[in-house]
């Protein structure tokens, strides 16, 4: 009896799964380490860094799609009214997400940003049930409710909403939901979004007479250009992983990124958590673990 007939992975399938899993860890690892990169640009305003991220990532992704002879996909997006409107909405959401995240790193709020990315997957589960009528089982509902309760109690104790975490989680969860509903490809969709925002970024930089790109020295200019590849390379790595491993495994690995961000904030960048924020983290992490452990059958199927 062959390994395939016994339900075991063939050597080729095992290699594919291994490479996909490694690529997923690399992608989320790069995203988790991004605060170290944005921290190098703390002398440049967050809005200016955002503009360069939009410009250089759009150009980099356009070159990647051109090399793959897929640039026509970006043009096809604009030919359909529904996909074009989705790109406009997604462009607004991802620009907001990028801008808030860059600013959060610059003002030493990496830990709060990491909380947002812990919440995002649970919020995506709730949006899936609301927008796509996906089945929300009891444990998924309890996990989502527990995470929201933790944030609500932290808000009450702090006297204000942890708005960085809230904006990052809501904007990215909505971004993912819109892309799914419109059926937008990760690479061509992001290229279309970046190219849409590029004229506005160029106008702002022209108004600033080039800003830090010309006044900050060659080191700063190089870092600003690298904002393009730094944005696109993790996405390309993620796209490689997403077609090679089960979504359940990919969903589990995604928590590697906010965990790295949290560790960087606490142990490298010298940030501190207040009591209410510790409570919020505790409940959100508990909710994440509850969600993961409540679906052993799915985990076994994905192993």
Automatic annotation (TrEMBL):
A Pfam family per the record: EamA
Signal sequence segment: none
Listed InterPro entries: EamA_dom, EmrE-like, RarD
Membrane association type: Multi-pass membrane protein
Transmembrane found in the keyword field: yes
This protein's UniProt keywords: Cell membrane, Membrane, Transmembrane, Transmembrane helix, Transport
Location within or outside the cell: Cell membrane
Top-level taxon of origin: Bacteria
Keyword Chloroplast attributed: no
Annotated family: Belongs to the EamA transporter family.
Protein name (record): EamA family transporter
Organism listed in the record: Geothrix limicola
